[in-house]
Design brief:
Elements lengths: L2 H10 L3 H10 L14 H8 L2 H9 L14 H8 L12 H11 L7 H13 L8 H14 L18
């Protein structure tokens, strides 16, 4: 088994000591990815392994690496908070705190992430207003990245026919 696969297994089993040892002995693991272009940071964010996420970020892992499914580690972190299998309420206070720390590493917040978040809220009405803090953090950082300007809307490629 390769060092990368061992590190992925350490993330999945939440074995922090083994993960840290593998990373110390193989610093190039930060640059490796699997056949889906998932990096260790993708796996850590999907698992919501905050300690491992911050070790990887501290060591220079790319928070904006795009996998074949067009997801970045940051986006996996956001959506894994909704799909957690532990039965926990999505975005408990410790995850909001982790989100605030991750935002300090300047992830590229694509506006489609915010749109997807809003769609999720529409499908699950009980979440309306419950995640205002999260959405406000995302919107604030996105506007900061885009110098306060929202993205330009594309004109409708098919104009309405005139009768």
């Amino acid at each position: 088994m390769s060092a990368f696969n061992k590190a992925v297994e350490a993330i999945k089993s939440n074995n922090f000591n083994q993960f840290e040892e593998l990373l110390d002995n193989n610093p190039t693991l930060l640059l490796e990815s699997d056949q889906s272009d998932y990096t260790l940071l993708h796996y850590a964010c999907a698992k919501l392994a905050n300690d491992m996420i911050f070790i990887l970020l501290r060591d220079g892992a790319n928070l904006n690496a795009v996998a074949l499914n067009d997801k970045t580690p940051f986006e996996l972190f956001i959506f894994s908070n909704f799909n957690n299998k532990d039965g926990k309420k999505p975005f408990p206070p410790e995850q909001i705190e982790a989100l605030e720390k991750i935002l300090n590493y300047n992830p590229n917040i694509r506006f489609n992430l915010i749109q997807d978040f809003r769609k999720f809220e529409q499908h699950f009405p009980m979440t309306n207003k419950a995640y205002d803090q999260v959405i406000n953090l995302l919107i604030g950082k996105a506007y900061e990245q885009h110098e306060g300007r929202p993205p330009k809307k594309r004109p409708n490629p098919r104009p309405k026919p005139k009768f």
